[in-house]
Amino acid sequence: MTQTATDAATPAASPEYLDMRTAPRLCSLSRRTLDAAKARGELPFYKIGAKVLIARADLTAWMEARRVDVRADVARIEALAAGEV
């Protein structure tokens, strides 16, 4: 079977489940950080035999839950400085 130019330009589908080598690289965190989140029950995971997998959606949700809204922090600081709080 030959590969067409269109096939070569189409990116491969992202895996739905990530192993513990891929997940830390995807979010630029250490494996230790993800292991700690798993141990605290913050990051759901699957264990199949010795293999640990994290659903891409769970990793994304975990990251989004830790998003810091800088605008809200600035507004709170400005309110404190103005004596409004």
What does this structure look like?
The model has no long low-confidence stretch (mean pLDDT 86). This protein has one domain: Orthogonal Bundle (Arc Repressor Mutant, subunit A). The protein is built from five helices and three strands; from the N terminus they run αβααββαα. The chain is α+β, with helices and mostly antiparallel strands.
Tell me the structural class: alpha+beta
What number is the mean pLDDT? Answer: 86
Instruction: Summarize the biggest pleated sheet.
Output: 3 strands, antiparallel
Number of domains: 1
Task: Work out the oligomeric state of the chains in this entry.
Answer: single chain
The helix content, as a percent range, equals 40-55%
Number of DSSP helices? 5
Return Rg in Å.
Answer: 20 Å
The sequence of SSEs as H and E is HEHHEEHH
Q: Taking strands numbered 1, 2, ... along the chain, how are they ordered across the largest sheet?
A: 1-3-2
Q: Compute the separation of the termini in Å.
A: 69 Å
Q: Which geometry do the CA atoms define?
A: elongated
Outline the low-pLDDT stretches.
none
Tell me what the CATH architecture is. Orthogonal Bundle
CATH topology: Arc Repressor Mutant, subunit A
The strand count comes to 3
The CATH top-level class label? Mainly Alpha
What fraction of the residues are assigned to beta strands by DSSP?
A: 5-15%
